[in-house]
Design goal:
By secondary structure, this protein is an alpha/beta fold. The chain has a domain of 198 residues: Rossmann fold, CATH 3.40.50.720. The protein is 40% helix and 17% strand. It contains 11 helices and 13 strands. The strands form 4 sheets. The protein has a 7-stranded parallel β-sheet, sandwiched between helices. The protein has a two-stranded parallel sheet with strand order 7-10. Strand 5, helix 5 and strand 6 form a beta-alpha-beta unit. The radius of gyration is 18 Å and the shape is globular. The mean pLDDT is 97. The structure holds NADP nicotinamide-adenine-dinucleotide phosphate (NAP). NADP nicotinamide-adenine-dinucleotide phosphate binds next to helix 1, helix 4 and strand 5.
């Protein structure tokens, strides 16, 4: 009998890629806050009762928590909701897993750093600047208090599903197709990460029973503006309508780390995961001849 894995946030960008990567080899419990084509079981991680009942009914051996409140400005607007989903929800999962002997893989973010001197190693000091970053960091600590748990930080996730709610790729493609001008920040640097590649890396972490703190991201560091240009090139769209803008001009509620991004050498050396540049990731997500 294969290990039973609980996936939370299964309808999300990363959750759906994870289900696809794991479903042939594991017994998956695909859960999200509501059921749908990607989630068979409704599980609100903010409810301790629902989490405990799921554990007693199904006894997962591994929990991969991709459920989160990911709207960064929304977190600043609604800090109580952020606290509930990004922190309390994780606490429920970690406690239930500890009681039943399961291990947890928690997905975190480079927003735990302030972006003053990235890209960052796992050993670099954290200094979150937003409610999102603070709640995700607190969740890391709760997760890592149990020695067999794993936290994987990632950044700028994008997936092959252009219908996803917050798809940067779709926004770029649809805007350029409609001949609309888009202004994209050229001072936020990260290493964009394809969900499919991240899911493959998590699968290896599950197989190897990896624990502790690890970073996973793409091979190439780029500004959001450079990323948008590569998207335009991949879809063979004119690039003249992509204009650079500074983050400060957007007047967003929550501060963004500027020199962010994640150095992934630990995960590469210890687990042998692969990282890919943006061009390869776009080709994997949206194959063109
Ligand atoms: N996206 C990025 O660029 C990025 C970067 C770094 C790290 N991360 C981290 O990576 C993980 C996955 O991100 P993602 O982009 O795949 O997120 P996503 O697409 O927003 O998916 C998150 C899923 O969790 C669900 N959810 C929200 N509240 C829940 C609750 N109380 N109980 C159960 N499910 C709930 C959401 O449902 P609704 O849609 O109905 O709310 C959604 O289906 C998160 O931990 C995120 O913090 C993401």
């Amino acid at each position: 009998m294969p290990d039973r894995i609980l996936i939370t946030g299964a309808a999300g960008q990363l959750g759906s890629a994870l289900c696809a990567a794991l479903e042939s080899e594991y017994d998956l419990l695909r859960t999200d806050i509501a059921t749908g084509p990607s989630a068979d079981i409704a599980l609100d991680i903010t409810s301790a009762h629902q989490v405990d009942r799921l554990f007693s009914d199904h006894q997962p051996a591994v929990v991969i928590n991709t459920a989160a409140f990911t709207d960064v400005d929304g977190n600043d607007r609604e800090p109580e909701t952020a606290q509930k989903i990004n922190l309390l929800g994780v606490e429920h999962l970690v406690e239930a897993a500890a009681r039943s002997g399961a291990r947890v893989i928690q997905i975190s973010t480079d927003y735990v750093f302030d972006g003053s001197n990235g890209p960052y190693l796992e050993t670099d000091p954290v200094n979150p600047q937003s409610v999102y970053g603070h709640t995700k960091l607190a969740a890391e600590k709760i997760t890592l208090a149990q020695g067999k748990n794993l936290v994987i930080r990632t950044n700028v996730l994008f997936g092959p599903d252009l219908t996803a709610r917050a798809s940067f790729v779709r926004w770029v493609v649809e805007s350029l197709q409609a001949d609309e001008t888009i202004r994209v920040v050229d001072d936020q640097i990260n290493n964009p990460t394809l969900t499919i590649h991240m899911a493959d890396a998590i699968k290896i972490a599950v197989e190897r029973e990896a624990a502790g703190l690890m970073h996973y991201g793409g091979l190439e560091f780029a500004s959001r503006y450079q990323f948008a240009r590569q998207i335009g090139e991949h879809f063979q769209l004119p690039l003249d309508n992509i204009l650079p803008i500074a983050t400060v001009e957007l007047k967003q509620l929550a501060p963004r780390p500027l020199n962010g991004g994640l150095i992934c050498s630990r995960m590469k050396m210890e687990l042998g995961v692969e990282n890919y540049n943006i061009r390869a990731a776009l080709q994997a997500a949206f194959p063109v001849n």
